[in-house]
Prior knowledge:
Chain A has helices spanning 4-19, 40-54, 65-68, 71-83. Chain A is mostly helical. In chain A, helix 1 crosses helix 4. The longest helix of chain A has 16 residues, at 4-19. The relative contact order of chain A is 0.19. Chain B is of the alpha/beta class. Chain B has a single domain, classed as Rossmann fold (3-Layer(aba) Sandwich), CATH 3.40.50.620. In chain B, strands 3-2-1-4-6-5 form a six-stranded mixed sheet, with helices on both faces. Chain B is globular. The model of chain B has no long low-confidence stretch (mean pLDDT 93). The A-B interface holds A 19-20, 31, 33-34, 36-45, 47-49, 60, 63-65, 68 and B 15-16, 141-145, 185-186, 188-189, 192-193, 195, 197-199, 201-203, 205, 233-235. The structure holds zinc ion. The site of zinc ion has 9 residues of chain B, from helix 1.
Amino acid sequence: MESTLQIQEQLLEFVCRNYMVERDDVIPDESLVDQGIIDSFGLVEISGYIQKEFGIVVVDSEMNRANFGSIVKISNFVEKKRNS
Amino acid sequence: MKKRCTHCILSEHFPGVSYDSEGVCSFCRDKSFLQTEENAIQKAQEQVDELLKTVKAQSNTYDAVMLYSGGKDSTYTLYQAVKKYGLKVLSFTLDNGYIPNQTFDNIVKITDKLGVDNLIFRPSKENMKAIVKASALYPIYNKRTMVRISSVCNSCISMVNTQALRIALEKNISIILAGFTLGQIPVNSIIYKNNYTFLEESRAKSNSLLRKYTGEWLDTYYNLPTSLVKNTVEWPTMVNLLCLEKLSEEEIVAAISTLGWTAPKNVDGCSSNCQLNTFNNVIHEKVYGYNPYELELSHMIRKGLIDRETAISKVETMDPELFKSIADDLQISEDEIGNAGSLYKTGK
Ligand SMILES: [Zn+2]
C-alpha cells in the first residue's frame, strides 16, 4: 500500500494533469479552491478519483473542508480511511 | 481567421492548448481520452441503474426533480427520464426573463404530453438584470470554470441548481436530473452527490463577488435556508442522463419533434432556450479570446457527433443585432464592455 507521501504524489499528479497546472503552482497544504485550481466540479472529481483509486467509500458527512481542504488533508484522509 | 485545431475547433487562446506540426491540438492527440471516457460512462450507467432502482422502490410522489429549460437537450432528457427510465418527474424551469415564447410553448406542450408537473420560478426582472450585468462585466468566477461556460450562463445555472436543490430537500426528492452533455461537464460528474455544505466552499468566493456587484438580496437566490441545510442527513444525487447516450443534435431534435417540440427562431445556433446566449458568447470571446462552446463542440467532433464545418459555423455566426438588443436592454455601454476585458486581465 502507498504511504501518505505516495498518496500525496499521486494526487498532485492527478491535479496537474486534470487542471493543467504545473507542479510548482500547487501549494500542497493550501485549499485547491482558494488557489483557484479547482471549482465545485473539481471537488466532485477529486472525491470520485480517490474513491476509485484508493478503494475507499466517502460518505456525505465526511465531505468537508477538514478532509478535502488541501492535498495534504486529502492524503491524510485517504490514509485514515484505509486504516479504519 | 482564427487559428484552430485542424481536427476539432479549439482555438489558440483556449487554456492549455498546443498544436503539432499538422495543426492537431493536444486534446485531439490524446488517444486514450475517449477510451477512459467510455469506461467512465459504463461505470456511471451502472451507478445510475442502481440508484434508480432504489429510488423507484421508495414510491415517493416524485422520484426526481428535473432542471427543465425547454431547450433540446433538457427536453430529450425529460423524455428519456419518463419513457426510458419510467421516473415520476417534477420538472422545474427558471424563467430568467430571456426565454423565447416558442420555448415556453415547448415547455407546456412537452410537459403536457409526457404528463409531467412543472414549476416555474421567475426572479424579478430588475434583480435578474443586475445579476446578468454583474456577471458579464466583472470577473466573478474562477478562470477554470470559464473554459466550459460563459459567466452569465454560469450565474443562471448556479441559481437553477440551488433552487432545484431546495425543491428536492423540501419535497424529499432523492434525484436531481439535468440535461448537460459531456463536454459541458467533466466525465466524473455524470452522477454525484449534491452535497451543499461540501460544494458551498467552492462557490463562496464567487457568491460574495456577485453579491458585492448586485446586493444583499442575492442570497435569496443562491443560498439555502440554514434550517434546511442543518436538517439534511443525505443529499440528493445529481444525474446527467444525456451523458450516457451517444446522440447527434439531429437525432435529438428528430426524437423530440415527434412530441411537438419546435426550435425557436430568435436564438443563436448554440442555444435553443435563451436569448442571452449570443451576448454571453460575444463577451466571453472579448474577455478570454475563445468561444465558451469550443470545448463542447470539439468533444462532439471527436466522438463523431457533429462535423467540424457545422461546429465552426455555430461559434462564428454571431448576429450583431441580437448582441446589441441585449446590451441595450441591460443598459450596458460599449465602454463598459471594453472595460470588462481589461478588468478580467488584471484579475481585479
Ligand atoms: Zn483538436
